[in-house]
Design goal:
Largest sheet: 8 strands, antiparallel
Distance between the termini: 31 Å
Helix content: 25-40%
Order of helices and strands: EHEHEEHEEEEHHEEEEHEEHEHEHHEHEH
Number of helices: 12
Structural class: alpha+beta
């Protein structure tokens, strides 16, 4: 199950709306959104919080949260200050004054045994120093929910049960509320961290891949931004995350589950530090979308300083994605930079299956052979993880 982090804005929207308390916070992309978005959203007389929304832990201790902002200028200045630390995504929401004694903790995590609930009457930024006071329950029925609600002092008692319900309905893998502020027995969810099963994207309408965040600090590369913009306009899933800009192993992957498996295989074979990127194209993207996606990935590959490089074009057996069409897009992108790929002696290894696989695989094999690109092309008869071993064997051990 590929677990990915949701933006806090999306997580809070889902949780608060399900609880019957529509969420009024708003996201702010410092690289793209106009300042007028803040001016138009802020209500005079209220105070606000501005914080980084990139899946970062311990934000308060790192100075990535600014409190008690009284007007749009305060908010803009706070974001500008934090942005110097190379962050792009922010969340702006109304400030909830409270006493530290009102801060509680609760988290839900999906495991093989079921949903584990962790909870404590002491929450906040120092929760780790109170770990001995954190309770832990394997959720079985409503009696467990009532026990947790009672320990937290939350009313109505159905609060925890609703958390369980929305956790399942939205395919959450992890949900943490810290602090959960309980004032006059009413819960306020000040900070939320959530992870979802990315493979469930096609079954929900409350979140999408556009809401995913990675905790890597720093400004996104132009290639990552381009893919994000492409995904926003597409019904397909298109994601790209740079792990090591000077990596040697580049992955052009189709399908969330197989993508995760192939990336894990690189780590299992002891080459995780050479993995340049993670991401996927899936959901039957068009030839043009695949071309644009591949073009951005190849841009990263060419800029890498690694002395030897390999490109793995991998995926399982697709149900809907047309292999022939997507391979045309990949070939188009490769053609534009073929002289550079040849100069850098980039090796290409392919394993793919699905609709029109025979035509697509033949097109790719003929193309690579014609351009004298080393590597190999395989269909579904090759175990999907073996393509990684073949690729790694082609580059020097001491790369």
């Amino acid at each position: 199950m590929p677990r990915v982090k949701l933006s806090e804005f999306r997580a809070k929207t889902i949780v608060n709306n399900y609880m019957g308390n529509p969420y009024s916070g708003f996201p702010f992309d410092a690289g793209r959104d106009p300042i007028s978005k803040i001016d138009n959203a802020v209500v005079q007389g209220k105070t606000y919080v501005a914080k980084v929304d990139q899946g970062i832990k311990k934000r308060f201790k790192q100075g990535l949260v600014k409190l008690d902002l009284k007007n749009p200028t305060d908010i803009v200045d706070a974001i500008a200050e934090i942005r110097k630390k190379h962050f792009e995504y922010f969340l702006v929401e109304e400030y909830v004054p409270h006493d530290n004694n009102d801060e509680k903790y609760i988290s839900l995590e999906r495991t093989r045994k079921g949903i584990i609930i962790n909870y404590s009457h002491q929450g906040g930024v120092d929760i780790e120093s109170h770990s001995d006071e954190v309770g832990r329950i394997l959720y079985k029925d409503s009696s467990d929910a009532h026990k947790v609600a009672g320990a937290l002092g939350v009313e109505p008692e159905g609060f925890v049960e609703k958390l369980i319900e929305l956790f399942d309905i939205n395919y959450f893998s992890f949900l943490e509320i810290n602090p959960l502020v309980v004032s006059l027995k009413k819960p306020y969810m000040l900070d939320i961290a959530a992870e979802v099963d990315s493979a469930a994207e096609f079954f929900v309408d409350t979140w999408s891949s556009n809401d995913f965040r990675n905790s890597r600090t720093g400004v996104l590369t132009e290639e990552e931004k381009n893919v994000h913009k492409l995904s926003e306009k597409s019904s397909s899933s298109l994601t790209l995350t740079v792990l090591n800009p000077n990596g040697a192993i580049f992955m052009l992957l189709s399908g969330g589950g197989v993508s995760l498996a192939l990336a894990d295989e690189v780590a299992n074979l002891g080459k995780g530090d050479l993995l340049a990127n993670y991401g996927e194209y899936s959901g039957n993207p068009t030839e043009e979308e695949t071309y644009i996606y591949t073009k951005n990935l190849l841009s990263l590959l060419i800029k890498s300083n690694a002395p030897q490089k390999v490109l793995i074009i991998g995926g399982g057996v697709a149900n809907f994605t047309d292999v022939r069409v997507t391979f045309r897009g990949i070939i188009h992108a490769m053609t534009e930079v073929m002289p550079e790929l040849q100069r850098q002696n980039v090796k290409v290894f392919v394993r793919r299956g699905g609709p029109h696989q025979d035509e697509g695989l033949k097109d790719m094999e003929d193309y690579l052979s014609y351009n004298k690109i080393e590597g190999s092309v395989h269909g579904p008869k090759l175990v999907v993880s073996e393509i990684v071993a073949k690729a790694l064997e082609s580059i020097a051990i001491d790369n």
